[in-house]
Design brief:
With 195 residues, the chain is mostly beta strands. It has 2 helices and 12 strands; from the N terminus they run αβββββαβββββββ. The chain has a 10-stranded antiparallel β-sheet with strand order 5-4-3-2-12-11-10-9-8-7. A hairpin with a 4-residue loop joins strand 9 and strand 10 (156-166). The longest helix has 13 residues, at 3-15.
Length: 195
Amino acid sequence: MNIQTLSFITLLAICSYCTPADVSNQPTLADYRVGEKWVWKYKGVTTAGEVRSDGTDTREIINVDGVLGMTVEKDTIPVSDIVKPEESETPKYAWPLEVGKKWKYENSWTSQDGTTGNQSQDAEVLSYQEETVEAGTFMAYTIRYTGKISNSRGYSADEKEVWLYAPAVKTFIKLTQTQGDFNYVEELIEFSKPE
């Protein structure tokens, strides 16, 4: 056996004991392709059985004058804006994602009717494993958010969210949310990309 063959066999033996780190970085502009499409179904119901939301949400990557954009309802958002690193000490996703990571998520917002609100949640990545939704089976991080939400109209509630984030599709494949007496589920039912 020559020295190169022996070195290769030794390297294989060493690597057989190595396990790759299950760490995922934020997607970049280069990760998106024209024609990628995501479709989610969603439903929100109160504990009394009142349906407050029920429908589908579709997003697609398109080319607008040489710039990649993502369709969101009637709008198109440049993908470069979507992948821009969030400059916050309390982000939605604390990149890179890895099991056991914990952080604080805080968000202030204004709705279309002028209502302002705040969220404050503790986040933790619980696992990275195969998860199956209607769109298929994907390796996904389970991220749990627990905390409170309040708004300027006097609403305040405890909130718990579980997001399944799949790096292969660059977004979440399922969201389960409990907010006071309201339960909401959103699940990816279709994901397609150009060959």
